[in-house]
């Protein structure tokens, strides 16, 4: 954060505020971890704060401290809307465009509160009075740690905050293997462990509590994997029928796209997931090295994210989407040489 943003934020928090903290739709570990971590901090300085998520989040995050206090907009719209209407200060975390909250977008656009954005994705929009945006950061959770350090002191980080922030950093760095993991990231994580983050327990709760349906879907996904050796690319498809046959639950497909990158000589991995309720194909892109999936997603699939991790969507059918995708690869062949 720059000096002006720090000064403005301190001024805003110097008096009691009604605060709403919002993650993106389909929140992941970084979104839930950062919002809850910030929520605990704001409560500790006697602010009236609430976390409102657009929709529910995966079961493997349901253990997190404070998660039971999150208001789910789609399940409790009237209550959530009142919080947003009454809010004097609105934090948006782990996203940088209001379209990322889905059906909450209209409510936020009509809100009269002052916005503060904390996010590490590319191309932030300009809706916030204070914008703390840094694409070099491993995670929004690392940024929340920096935020607390900048406006106050990391001595305010309790074990609950530490557990929340550690979870988001761990999940958004792929257990510390992505290129966004820096020496600073490790120093932050070390301090969080010193402050009470139960790192081994967190890893077990996130990664070692699979349901049978999750493993069955993983098996189906790996069976469907297509390897395009000429393009150093692997992609996976999951149809709505396959999800339904395996009793799909929210979060069951989390991380499956990364399996493509475990193959030798693969630098581009994609998963296409059919969602008939929304009438779209949801797409996750991952890469290694210099190939920017952020640019690819923005150019062709109405998405974006980071250079090595991004998302997108398609309004075409699943077969039409994969055909379109394969047809695009030839123009990227030189960039996909590795």
TrEMBL record:
Coiled-coil region: none
InterPro entries cross-referenced by the UniProt entry: DDH_dom, DHH_sf, DHHA1_dom, Oligoribo/pAp-PDE_c-di-AMP_PDE
DDH domain span: 18-169
Database matches in Gene3D superfamilies: 3.10.310.30, inorganic pyrophosphatase (n-terminal core)
Gene Ontology molecular function: nucleic acid binding
Pfam family for this entry, one: DHHA1
DHHA1 domain boundaries: 245-325
Cleavable signal peptide: none
Protein name as catalogued: Phosphoesterase RecJ domain-containing protein
